[in-house]
Amino acid sequence: MAVRKAWQTRPMLETSARLLRLLSLLQAHREWAGADLADRLGVSARTLRRDVDRLRELGYPVNASPGTGGGYQLGAGAELPPLLLDDDEAVAVAVGLRTAAGQGIDGIGETSVRALAKLEQVLPNRLRRRVGALNAVTVPMLRSTLPSSVDPAVLTELAHLCRDAERLRFEYRGHDGTPSRRSVEPHRLVCTERRWYLVAWDLDRNDWRTFRVDRVTPKPPHGPRFTPRTPPAEDLAAYVSQGVSTRAYATHAVVRLLVPLEEAAEHISPSAGVLEAEGPDSCLLRCGAGSLDVMVIHVVMLGFEFEVLEPDGLIDAIRRTRDRLDGALARAAQSPPRTADGAGRTPATRSGSGAAS
Question: Which residues share a beta bridge with 185?
């Protein structure tokens, strides 16, 4: 067998790399216009058509719509693409991703949703039924530490709508349980260690809103498609953190914590406040609460030495709390110790001189 020369091998490697790039782009969006896809790959329309044909020969179901406005879409075929996963492996991976997405595992949940959205897009119907059946009859023994669970199916549905820029209709339960109908342009999912949030443009309120996903019940049909807006912030994680920890409350405060930022971050979650670096031995905390008295409890229970920067009313609330605590300690010192059954004991009883035999 003749040895293939380097100049013959290079075009093959370039073609293989381009095919992988093409497959990745097709997985990233529901549908691509042919011109946009060719522009992304830096090839002509003719080369793009030839690459699509190669993917089809490999078993990847690529659908094409004709006409000047036609495009390409990665479909769900009768067989899984070769060199990826067989049926049993695909079912195992899908179930595992659903479990990880629903448990809120630190560093895994958001990635699991993205991966699951890609996988479910190409799963044949027979495998989707197997995945659904297995999830329906499986009861996890591990109890989630989350205060409320999130249906992985809802997460993947929202992920698809964010990715494809399709309008979302859903029923939303407020803090008091009151339901409302909402119509939004979904932008991104944000995951903390405790909850999932959806950042979306609320069409009725004409403004950006953050929704807790465990309170969202999708009400299809969804659509139409929309042109994505400029997001409300470059750092959406910080935006959501500020919204759920500060903007959602009537009372806001800024305090200086007398510990390094890294130490504070180990104990303060993004839903409890927004931390900012200040110096090697201190950091700033911006947080919110329903009232100044509740704010005092919130800040004190953090367990760090602190200094109030704003508002001034928080210092007055701390003084009132201090006075109440001083009064409680003074009354406790004046009251006789109490027995296990709650009855008071006299000094003679404590010394044992008057104890019954």
Answer: 201
pLDDT tens per residue across span 125-164: 777 777 766 555 455 544 444 445 677 778 878 888 888 8
Q: Is 158 exposed, middle or buried (CB count within 10 Å of its CB: 0-12, 13-18, 19+)? A: buried
**How distant, in Å, are the alpha carbons of 85, 125, 165, 194 from that of 152?**
21, 18, 20, 15
Contacts within 8 Å (CB) and 24+ apart, 11-18: 15/51, 15/54, 18/43, 18/51
Q: In whole angstroms, give the CA distance from residue 135 to residue 99.
A: 9
> Poorest-confidence range of 125-129, 295-299, 321-325?
125-129
CA angle 233, 234, 236 (to 5 degrees): 65
H, E, C per residue of 105-156: CCCCHHHHHHHHHHHHHHCCHHHHHHHHHHHHHCCCCCCCCCCCCCCHHHHH
Rounded Cα distance between 191 and 45, Å, is: 39
| pLDDT of 4 higher than 60 | no
Is the pLDDT score of 101 beyond 70?
no
**What single DSSP character describes residue 214?**
G
DSSP alpha helices (H): ranges in 252-291? 261-265
Phi and psi dihedrals of 197, rounded to 5?
A: -130, 145
CA distance 64 to 54: 14
* Tokens 């498609």 sit on residue: 225
Q: What is the DSSP letter of 243?
A: I
Q: What is the pLDDT of residues 218-229, one digit of tens each?
A: 999 998 999 999
Q: If you ran DSSP here, which 8-state letter would residue 225 be given?
A: B
Cis peptide preceding 337, ω within 30 of 0: no
Nearest alpha carbon to residue 199 among 214, 185, 219, 217: 185
Predicted TM-score (pTM) of this structure: 0.53
